[in-house]
Amino acid sequence: MRDFPLPLALTARLSPVVVLACAGWALTSGPLAASPATEHKAAQQSSHSTGTQSPSAPSSSTAPKSYASAPAPCTSIAAKTITSLVPGAKTAGKELPSTDTKVRRTCSWNALKGYDYRWLDVSFEIMDSDAAAQKSYQDRTSEKSGGGVVPGLGDSAYSVVNLTTEDKQQTREGVVMAQVSNALVVVTYNGSDFETKKAPSTQEINTGAIKAARDAVAALEDGQKG
Prior knowledge:
This protein is an alpha+beta fold. It has a domain of about 160 residues: Protein Transport Mog1p, Chain A (3-Layer(aba) Sandwich), CATH 3.40.1000. Helices cover about 30% and strands about 25% of the residues. It contains six helices and seven strands. A seven-stranded antiparallel sheet has the order 1-2-3-7-6-5-4. A hairpin with an 8-residue loop joins strand 1 and strand 2. It starts with 7 loop residues before the first helix and ends with a helix.
């Protein structure tokens, strides 16, 4: 078997140091801003004049969150899915370091079998509220044009596939983002063939990414809720 030099970008993907950059999805800021002070004061005066006191609605920072913490990412994808999408990879996966595992956890799988390279990762991000998760989802999907809605996946889901070429080597990557209450699930799946220098088809990458995302969302929904 001949040795084929890997393109710079894909060589970096095989490096544990650069793996940390693969899950660089930015967390959004916290809950919605509170009502203006003038409105709150007016409400207090109205309550006092009628001799009654209306109960205060809980703020988004104190209201219970649907999901209090991120699930274990490396067990969120079924072993048969890993075997199918990343041939030759260890099904246990590798969890990436996180500054706060309650709000963000990521696991990745990658393998080079023969000349075929595949990479898969899944990330769970827990926001302060459903509204914050929805805003983050909308911001991210608006930056990734050319994709489409994935029906029946979480509250909202979006899938996009892109092709890149470096040193005549093609790589096709699919990203699926799903919002589930106050959580975001992000799946990245890509592949290359180092013999033909071609990439897998759009359908193969898109179908694989969506399949992994369905596993991940199911694991989130089946897990412990706050």
